[in-house]
């Protein structure tokens, strides 16, 4: 399970011109389920995400989490994070979970996030999405489970 996380001042996602999710300050999370991932991985990844200290404290050090700052989460499904680009010029996505399994795990991850955090917005699984963001810092981090 992979998550590419960007600390943002604001972020939004549109599908067919309509905003399906938007947040102000918080974390933009690009989420990818890989083959062999399970629901327990969703729980562990979310736990790490919510505790990740990537926001500045009073001294300017990254010591605060999205929970500490009451920031939003915008979770975007993105199977392309599993791309294998080691050879050739066309990425292979064989490492990504099959679409039905990817959707199931994305839905589970979002449900867990909504149960644990007050502000959660999402993209639409399988849709052609347009994501806009203002990266704060910039801060961009990878989380991988296990």
Give the class-level CATH name: Alpha Beta
CATH fold-level name: D-tyrosyl-trna(Tyr) Deacylase, Chain: A
If classified by CATH, what would the architecture be?
Answer: 3-Layer(bba) Sandwich
Mean pLDDT over the full residue set: 97
Cα shape: globular
Strand content: 35-45%
Biggest beta-sheet profile: 6 strands, mixed
Strand tally is 8
Q: What integer value in Å does the Rg equal?
A: 15 Å
SS summary, helix count: 3
CATH superfamily: D-tyrosyl-tRNA(Tyr) deacylase
The share of residues in helices is 10-25%
| SSE class | alpha/beta
Task: Explain the overall architecture.
The protein has 146 residues and is of the alpha/beta class. The protein has one domain (2-136): D-tyrosyl-tRNA(Tyr) deacylase (D-tyrosyl-trna(Tyr) Deacylase, Chain: A, 3-Layer(bba) Sandwich), CATH 3.50.80. 24% of the residues lie in helices and 39% in strands. Strands 1, 2, 3, 6, 7 and 8 form a six-stranded mixed beta sheet that branches. Helix 1 crosses helix 3.
């Amino acid at each position: 399970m992979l998550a590419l996380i960007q600390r943002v001042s604001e972020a939004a996602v549109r599908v067919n011109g309509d905003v399906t999710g938007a947040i102000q300050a918080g974390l933009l999370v690009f989420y990818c389920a890989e083959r062999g991932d399970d629901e327990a991985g969703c729980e562990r990844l979310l736990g790490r995400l919510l505790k990740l200290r990537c926001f500045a404290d009073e001294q300017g050090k990254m010591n605060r989490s999205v929970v500490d700052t009451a920031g939003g989460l915008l979770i975007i499904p993105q199977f392309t994070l599993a791309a294998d680009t080691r050879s050739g010029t066309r990425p292979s996505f064989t490492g990504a979970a099959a679409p039905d399994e990817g959707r199931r795990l994305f839905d589970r991850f979002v449900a867990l996030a909504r149960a644990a955090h007050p502000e959660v917005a999402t993209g639409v699984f399988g849709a052609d999405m347009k994501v806009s963001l203002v990266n704060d810092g910039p801060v961009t981090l990878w989380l991988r489970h296990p």
